[in-house]
Structures are given as structure tokens and as C-alpha cells.
Write a structure and sequence with these properties.
Shape: elongated
Strand content: under 5%
Number of strands: 0
Length: 185
């Protein structure tokens, strides 16, 4: 019981950190000063810190505690919503790790080069478009995971149709006996 509650608390805190970190990342992109290349480079360093110290650890904690909760509490293994949360958690981890976190470091480095004049001013344009798309997808998956965790629908997948009822053994024996009688006659 203690392990289950501890995992639930850690999972909830991790989800809050993840959604808060994504929101902070987005707000920084929109509202932080970006008038000069140096300002933009500072913004990118801040985003890298948010990614490294909030987003990635929160997502890792949410994923690990969610999977451990499925191990500790067996009924979760039989629930479709829990498996959907696990699958989307892995997708979010891939998105954060390979795109958001990795690109945050690259963007910070590239923006420093732009500020120093060693890279062209439009060097980050393609990255920014990809960054926004990924942020919105990961945010949508994060919110969907919270909704599934709170709502916990009874049925996600349609109920399988029961197998055809097998006739009672007596009826089978009667059919076999009739067949034997016909063959004997």
C-alpha cells in the first residue's frame, strides 16, 4: 500500500513538472526578450536549463513511476487506459529526449554563434518550426495522459465477443450416436 501511494504521489508530481516545464518553455519562446542576438542566446540557455533540469527529469520520473505502478498494482495491467498511458509516455520520452532536449542544446550553441557573428542569422529557422510542433504534440499527449489517469475509463477497447457456446456433452454424444447408427444401417 505504501509503495502504491508513493508511486502515485511521485507520478503526479512528475506530471505537474512536465506540463509546467512545457508551459515555461513555450512562454519563454513567446515572451522572453529577443531583440538582440545576445538576448536570444540567453533565452536559449534558459530553455536548455528548463529542458535539462525540469522536462527530462520529470518525464523520466513519470515514465518510471507509471511503469512501476503497473507492476506493483496488478489491476492496472488489465486496463486499456494504463497501457495507452504507457505507450504515450514512451512516445513523449522519445519526443523530449530526441527533439526538445537535444535541440535545446543545439539551439543554445547555434544562437551563441549567431551572437558572435560566426553563423548566419537564419540558422535556426527550420529548428524553430520543428520545435513548436513537437512542443504542442508533447503537451497534448501530457494533458491526455493526465485526463486518462483521472478519468480511468472502464473500457477503452471494444469488448471481445464471447466465443460460441459449445453444446453440452450429452448433446454431442447424442449426435455421435445418431451418426454411428446411420453408418451401421
Amino acid at each position: 500500500m505504501f509503495a502504491k501511494m508513493t508511486l502515485k504521489i511521485l507520478h503526479t508530481l512528475a506530471a505537474a513538472g512536465l506540463i509546467g516545464g512545457l508551459g515555461a518553455y513555450m512562454l519563454m519562446l513567446v515572451f522572453a526578450p529577443q531583440e538582440t542576438a545576445a538576448d536570444y542566446a540567453d533565452l536559449r540557455e534558459t530553455i536548455k536549463a528548463i529542458s535539462d533540469y525540469l522536462l527530462l527529469p520529470s518525464l523520466a520520473l513519470a515514465l518510471v513511476t507509471g511503469l512501476l505502478a503497473m507492476v506493483v498494482h496488478y489491476p492496472f495491467q488489465e486496463r486499456g487506459w494504463a497501457w495507452i498511458k504507457a505507450a504515450t509516455g514512451i512516445l513523449m520520452f522519445k519526443g523530449i529526449l530526441t527533439i526538445v532536449s537535444a535541440k535545446a542544446g543545439h539551439a543554445a550553441e547555434m544562437s551563441r554563434k549567431i551572437a558572435e557573428g560566426t553563423a548566419p542569422p537564419d540558422a535556426l529557422q527550420g529548428l524553430i518550426d520543428l520545435e513548436w510542433g513537437t512542443l504542442w504534440i508533447v503537451m497534448a499527449l501530457s494533458v491526455a495522459n493526465v485526463v486518462l489517469g483521472v478519468w480511468r475509463p472502464k473500457r477503452i477497447f471494444p469488448e471481445s465477443k464471447p466465443a460460441a457456446e459449445t453444446p453440452p456433452a450429452a448433446a454431442l454424444h447424442a449426435v455421435a450416436a445418431q451418426k454411428i447408427e446411420r453408418e451401421a444401417a
